[in-house]
Amino acid sequence: MKAVGLTRYLPVDDPESFLDVALQKPEPTGRDVLVEVKAISVNPVDTKIRAPKDKAEKTPRVLGWDASGVVSAVGPDVTLFKPGDTVYYAGDLTRPGTNQQFQLVDERIVGRKPTSLSDAQAAALPLTAITAWEAFFDRLHIAPAGGAAGQSVLIIGGAGGVGSIAIQLAKWAGLTVITTASRPKTKDWVKKMGADHVVNHREDLVAQVRALGLEHVDYVAIFNDMRHWNAAVELIRPQGGIVTIDDTDLPMPMDVMKTKAASLHWEFMFTRAMYHAPDMIEQHQLLTRVADLIDAGNLRTTLTTTLGPINATNLREAHRLVESGTMIGKVVLEGWG
């Protein structure tokens, strides 16, 4: 089968940073489904893992953690899917990724693909939808489906992949959404996603939020980096909650967090699969619920750029776009050529 892999960790402009390779088609066992991959997406985690380092692989390593496709075969213990089912998923950081024609993935982290979306539109969503859903509803315990009406959230990093779907989920929950963006294109994008207010992350966030008539916000979601930690702490209400997906070496003073009795939550969507958590199946359930919301018209895809076919050249271009730091929404690769 066709795949795109790497044997060395190189800058994305190096022609050997990704290689077109042929691999043996795997066979499913246990609770694994074998998915024929139709479309894939690239996320910051892909670029971080591919980033240059003094390491080499003896056999090609396949990255990729977003896909949509069709179930080709199932293991003997599978109960949720059958061959022919269309699915979407983000996969498991500890296993070979989505950048291959056929991939094994545990059924408990796979969802039914939205019927109203194409493969490319669906592939843009799994990792970011899981991240945003878990951040809001599992970590911060925000009430879904309009239950958070009257409350507010500041989303730092609104135009990226996670921020784009997080805005939509926050609006579905009933929250007033303030999000950051600095360029005309990104401001237009976050408003399209449903943001109520847009503030510029290159300027004083505290002053801008308070100019909206809000002394504090109920929740803060940091979806890009921790440079705005102090502003987040200043703006969070007493007994409010902050969630972040960023790993950081920057200082994170906790004195005001303590006096406010505010909570800090880390979100990492791979945790359930990495540690074989007893509630792994929650990701199957939430992806299926997101699919229902999309098909009902409550959420939309965050796809903005489509490349094809899936090969080393186009995957390098997708990584370049993500690494640029100016990507709006998601980039997807479709078809194997």
Question: Which labels suit this protein?
Answer:
337 residues; alpha/beta; Rossmann fold; 2 domains; globular; GroES-like_sf; Zinc-type alcohol dehydrogenase-like protein; oxidoreductase activity
Structure description:
This protein is an alpha/beta fold and 337 residues long. It folds into two domains: 188 residues, Medium-chain alcohol dehydrogenases, catalytic domain (Quinone Oxidoreductase, Chain A, domain 1, Alpha-Beta Complex); 138 residues, Rossmann fold (3-Layer(aba) Sandwich), CATH 3.40.50. The protein has eleven helices and 16 strands. The strands form three sheets. Strands 3, 5, 6, 7, 8, 15 and 16 form a seven-stranded mixed sheet that branches. The protein is globular, with a radius of gyration of 20 Å. The two termini are 12 Å apart. The model has no long low-confidence stretch (mean pLDDT 97). Belongs to the zinc-containing alcohol dehydrogenase family. Quinone oxidoreductase subfamily. This is Zinc-type alcohol dehydrogenase-like protein. Homotetramer.
For the record, what CATH class of the largest domain applies? Alpha Beta
Low-confidence stretches: none
CATH architecture designation of the largest domain: Alpha-Beta Complex
What would you give as the CATH superfamily of the largest domain?
A: Medium-chain alcohol dehydrogenases, catalytic domain
The rounded distance between the terminal residues' Cα atoms is: 12 Å
SSE pattern, N- to C-terminal: EEEHEEEEEHHEHEHEHEHEHEHHEHE
Mean pLDDT: 97
Question: What about the largest sheet?
Answer: 7 strands, mixed
The total strand number stands at 16
**How many DSSP H or I helices?**
11
Rg (CA only): 20 Å
Total tally of structural domains? 2
| Portion in beta strands | 25-35%
Shape: globular
Q: What is the fold-level CATH name, i.e. the topology of the largest domain?
A: Quinone Oxidoreductase, Chain A, domain 1
What level of helicity do the residues show? 25-40%
**How would you classify the helix and strand content by structural class?**
alpha/beta
